[in-house]
Amino acid sequence: MDGKEGVEMYLRVIACEIAARELYHAAARSPNVADIELLTQGYHDVPTKGREELQQRIDTAPAGKYDALLIGYGLCSNILAGITATHTRLVVPRAHDCITFFLGSKERYQACFTENPGTFYYTSGWIECGRRRGIPPGAWSTGFLPAGANMGMRGSYEEWVAKYGEEQAKYLMEEMARWTDSYTHGALIDFDFTKGLNLKEHVCCICRERNWAYSEIAGDISLMQSFIDGPWAEEAFLVVQPGEKIAPSFDDRIICAAPATP
């Protein structure tokens, strides 16, 4: 089976839990059968560890069982660099980070970031990952959840105190707050199927605390749907064949395939 339209496939999705609702929504509407495996949010902050975890999940997938392994990550601090297809082809969206998944294309991602610099983007996954870990709403505005801080830390202030001591915990909180000082807007990327989750209230709370302007952007599920459905258009997805690895392309393609060994 080759991903052609109308052909059912058996897929395994290995993705960040940030995209849980959107992935399950797309999978429920797909003719394909998808085993979805979600990894704890935060691996993009420690890319070496995240890369190792992703590679292990790829290597341990049963050979010959799946038509493709779908990797639900963007380049995300180079977490994908060096990831190798061992016995089954990999399919990866061409995306700098996961915000592309929710906006529908890398082109729309670029347009939004160009037209609205200084904007922090939120989705249901960003907020729900915080709830899952007991992070209070007041901490969401200090950079705990959105990608980019690259500090490799996740957890509540109390956990930081226990691990590092109160003085160091306060310093880390201040650094995370300082990192968000360049932002002026908070934008909620919302879908019809997430409108009942009361996400607006949470993001508005963050914006009030940070003195940011609030806005909403309509989410676009099309990239996620194509990810699950196939066929995988070259301009939107990279297909990595066994014996190849993922590498940054340093151009509009974002990622490319290279031989796994020199």
List strands and helices in order, with pairings.
Blueprint: E1 10-16, H1 20-28, E2 33-39, H2 47-60, E3 68-72, E4 90-93, H3 99-103, H4 106-115, E5 119-122, H5 124-132, H6 137-140, H7 157-164, H8 166-179, E6 185-190, H9 199-210, E7 213-218, H10 222-229, E8 237-240, E9 244-248, E10 255-259
Parallel strand pairs: 1-2, 1-3, 3-4, 5-6, 6-7
Antiparallel strand pairs: 4-8, 9-10
General description of the model:
This protein folds into 2 domains: 10-99 and 221-259; 106-218, no CATH class. It is built from 10 helices and 10 strands. It has helices at residues 20-28, 47-60, 99-103, 106-115, 124-132, 137-140, 157-164, 166-179, 199-210, 222-229, and strands at 10-16, 33-39, 68-72, 90-93, 119-122, 185-190, 213-218, 237-240, 244-248, 255-259. A 5-stranded mixed β-sheet has the order 2-1-3-4-8, with helices on both faces. It has a 3-stranded parallel β-sheet with strand order 5-6-7. It has a two-stranded antiparallel ribbon with strand order 9-10. Strand 6 (185-190), helix 9 and strand 7 form a beta-alpha-beta unit. The protein is 35% helix and 20% strand. Residues 1-6 and 140-155 have low confidence and may be disordered. Helix 7 crosses helix 8 (166-179). The chain has 262 residues and is an alpha/beta fold.
